[in-house]
Amino acid sequence: MPLGRRRPLLRGALVGGTAYAAGRRAAHAQQHEADQQAAIDQLQAQQTAAPVAPTAPTAPQPSAGSALLDELARLGELRDHGVLTDAEFAAAKARLLGT
Description:
The termini are far apart. The radius of gyration is 37 Å and the shape is rod-shaped. The chain has 99 residues and is mainly α. It has two domains: 1-47; 62-97, no CATH class. The protein is 74% helix and 0% strand.
C-alpha cells in the first residue's frame, strides 16, 4: 500500500477518536453538574424545612457529679446567711433538680 493512502485513514482515526473523547468528557461534565445541582437542591430543601422544635433541656441528675452538690451547698449557705429566703431556696433547688 502506498504511503499516501495511509495518512487519510490515520487522520480520520485521530479526528474520530478525539471527537469521541470530547463527547465523553462533555457527558461526564453534564452528569457532574446534574449531581451537584441535585445536592444543592437537597440542602436547600433541608434548610427550608420546618424547624424542629427545641426539646426542653434535661435537668441534671443527682448522679451528675459534684457540680450539682456544690451548687446545692452554695444555695444552702446563702439561705443560712439570710441572703435567700426559704421560698427562694426551695425554688432554686427545684430548678436545679428539675422538679
